[in-house]
Amino acid sequence: MASIARPRPDEIRRSRGRINWTPYLFLLLPLALYLVWIIGPTFYTMYLSMTNWDGVSANPTFIGLANYERLFRDRTFQESFANNIRWLLVFITVPTMIGLGLAMVFNTEMRGGRWYKISFYAPLVLSGPVIGLIWAWVYNPRAGLINAFLRGVGVESPPGWLADRDLAIWAIIFAAAWRQVGYVMVLYLAGLKNVDPQLVEAAQIDGATRFQLFRRVILPLLAPVTTIVIIISVIDSLRAFDLVAIMTNGGQRTQVLANFMYIEAFNNYQMGYGAAIAVMLFAIMLVFIAWYLWRSLKEELDY
Amino acid sequence: MATVANTGLVTQGDLEAYLFRRRLGNIFKYIFLTVLALLWLLPIFAAAITSLRTMDDISINGFWSIPRELVFTNYSEAWTTARVSQYLTNSFIITIPALVGMLFLSSLSAFALARYKFRGNLLIYFMYVAGTMLPFQILLLPVFRLTNSLGIYNSYWALILIHTAFQLGFCTFVLRNFMRTVPSEIFEAARVDGCSEFRQYWRIMLPLTVPSLAALATLQFTWVFNDYLWAIILLQSDSLRPVTAGLATLRGQYTTNWPVITAGALLATLPTVVVFIFLQRYFIQGLTLGSGK
């Protein structure tokens, strides 16, 4: 990296005290759009969460932290929170490991490797509703392919999957993880391309076994990719909405925060309460956003 | 291998045994991967097969039976009666302008952030980065209200604008980091030649950014096309719905008629699959763009 001269942004300010307006002109339109549609609304939701707005009345009444008090006593909130945590734990472990394993396999030249890779990342281009519908059919208790297979091999009463209160959330998370594996694989494959082959050779000459090579050389070199993978997994598991909305709509104890918020705000017209749920979701994510920003800020300042 | 054989300590037989083991290992690897890949795609195959059968055939003979006959009526049913064609058109009407808008606007802000030193540069950059990680739920209510007061609720514009605005963050992040790698000497030379700041952006920076823009466009096409949440929040009329929300309607109408539902789902994925097949290189690049730093 040191050999490449990385340019710095130019010093264009010609004389002290005179402001160069050019960058602000470039930023005018995009920044205005971003502030009005993204940044402003984030803060506005925080205000709404302290009101009892119903979506219809013109002026919401300020009710302080009442929505939050209600939230902590709400069973559905606890259920949703627990489900998001389950989702998160599965997402940062299972697709990460499978994706890394597949990336290790496909990193070496192999005949037809391209087609194998395509099979694993094909689910990535499917939309949430499509994945939800396809898997709802796969899980169908009567005619779906899993239970048809299980009955075929002699299982008399196969599980109801999405109709089963203990299994439903795991069945949904499994379908979501199915899609995530390809994403993780792509990220690790890109990371492996940047691994210096000389380091690998040096380790091999020193007599490292395959496992040692992976554990002591490749895995540490992939650490930055792993960080990104974990951040993406956390964001995606907290954003989880489509699959739950399509497959169960929160029934069979599958509620997640995003869908719970949608139902309270847009089906029950409890917009203030919905805003409080959204703020909780945001608060959980903020921990990770702050961590990531802190990390990038250090990089920027070194640079 | 040649050097090992020349030492004389390894016999021809050892070598053959080694090669045999290696080939055997390879064969196992291929068998394992083939089985895994087929299992992986099984849900999609299952949907494809289902879409070509009748529900009667499936319920009477079971899913794993050989289809009595292959029918295409499910596709025509989904395409016309269930209006998947209309939904797909809507998806394009929303996605294309959003793509153009977000790429143009983010290249403007990325140029400003990458090329100039000014107060608030890092602050604005980090605001964009933080915005990309927001949960959508924190925006739903104010944006819903905003579209209402602008009079664009329940119109294509509402979706075009929110997608453009939301994806500005990610696009700016990616483009800004790319633009910082372009040597500043080029622009200094242009400036000496009397090239205006906007022309430097339009004539020099933008052409250099085309590969990044292509990768971003491919990725964003998939993201915006696959959005479901904003579509159900900001649209009321079924006739305006993009295909993701349209599929939910279709599911409601054909509750247990899985052949039509799966046919609709497969039709809905056609555009993203086509983009993926033809622009795969860009798609993969796009996915890894954000993780470069």
Structural commentary:
The complex is a heterodimer of chains A (303) and B (293). Chain A has 303 residues and is mainly α. Helices cover 69% and strands 0% of the residues of chain A. Chain A is built from 13 helices and no strands. Chain A has helices at residues 22-48, 66-73, 75-107, 113-121, 128-138, 145-152, 168-193, 197-205, 210-221, 223-239, 242-247, 257-267, 271-302. In chain A, helix 3 packs parallel to helix 7 (168-193). Chain A starts with 21 loop residues before the first helix and ends with a helix. By secondary structure, chain B is mainly α. In chain B, 78% of the residues lie in helices and 0% in strands. Chain B has helices at 2-6, 12-51, 55-61, 73-81, 84-115, 121-132, 137-150, 156-179, 185-192, 197-225, 229-234, 243-253, 258-278, 280-289. The longest helix of chain B has 40 residues, at 12-51. The radius of gyration of chain B is 27 Å and the shape is flat. Chain B starts with a helix and ends with a helix.
Major beta sheet of chain A, specifics?
none
- What percent strand of chain B? under 5%
Low-confidence stretches of chain A: 1-15
Order of helices and strands of chain B: HHHHHHHHHHHHHH
Fraction of residues of chain B in helices?
over 70%
**Which range does the strand content of chain A fall in?**
under 5%
Distance between the termini of chain B: 40 Å
Largest interface in this structure? A-B, 99 and 101 residues
Q: Given the structure, what is the number of helices of chain B? A: 14
Backbone CA Rg of chain B: 27 Å
**Class from secondary-structure proportions of chain A:** mainly alpha
Mass-distribution shape of chain A: flat
- Tell me, rounded to a whole number, the average pLDDT of chain A: 90
Total strand segments of chain A: 0
The average pLDDT of chain B is 91
Which consecutive residue ranges of chain B, at least 5 long each, have pLDDT under 50? 1-5
